[in-house]
Write a structure and sequence with these properties.
The protein is an alpha+beta fold.
């Protein structure tokens, strides 16, 4: 059970401390602390995945997902990104083919797209997005802004709402909620939710 008005929060596309009673926020804070207990393991897997991607592609990746922004759930995977010249994308697919599964091409902006690959390392799914060089630069700027301006209270609030949507089976709202932070800090990208499977 929750005291939050999830409908109002998801419609507004942001959660803040003022949405919470003291009791609800303490539950959210305790949950967030539990999520952080997995940081050391995920940091190790991320470092190993980053080294492999650098070896395969010649480009150093950056964490562009919820773990990098400290908004992840225990079930979250890793999302890494690289900037890659459009003219070299065929070569990229060739070098990654032995190591990854190609998930497809997704729109990033009206005029650009990214290639998405996936592999599993130490039981963790790792998604790799190859963005255009310019789009990767924009994404890094966005992530820097999130790092420096999103408060701990906002991270706790966001993660708690994400957890509530996930565990209550509100899959479409959950898929959209995962993107609200990115959309807030980088409105020029095309933040289209990817369909989610119901929580088990």
């Amino acid at each position: 059970m929750t005291e939050l008005d999830l409908n109002a929060i998801t419609a507004r596309r942001w959660a803040c401390r003022g949405d919470f009673t003291d009791g609800e926020f303490e539950r959210a804070r305790a949950f967030y602390a539990r999520m952080r207990t997995g940081d050391e393991r995920l940091e190790k897997v991320r470092a190993e995945a980053s080294a492999l991607i650098s070896e395969w592609t010649g480009h150093k990746p950056r964490d562009v997902g919820s773990f990098g922004t400290r908004l992840n759930l225990a079930s979250s995977d890793l999302d890494l990104g690289i900037g890659y010249p459009v003219e070299d994308r065929d070569r990229l697919r060739e070098v990654l083919e032995p190591h990854t599964v190609f998930l497809g091409e997704r729109q990033t902006r009206f005029s650009t797209s990214r290639l998405v690959f996936s592999f599993t390392l130490e039981g963790v799914e790792v998604d790799l997005s190859a963005l255009t060089v310019e789009d990767f630069s924009i994404a890094c700027r966005m992530l820097d802004q999130i790092d420096t301006t999103m408060t701990l209270e906002e991270r706790i609030a966001h993660t708690w709402v994400k957890h509530l949507l996930h565990t209550s089976g509100r899959t479409q709202e959950y898929a959209a909620w995962k993107l609200v932070t990115y959309a807030r800090f980088c409105p020029e990208f095309n933040w289209v939710p990817i369909p989610e499977k119901p929580a088990t």
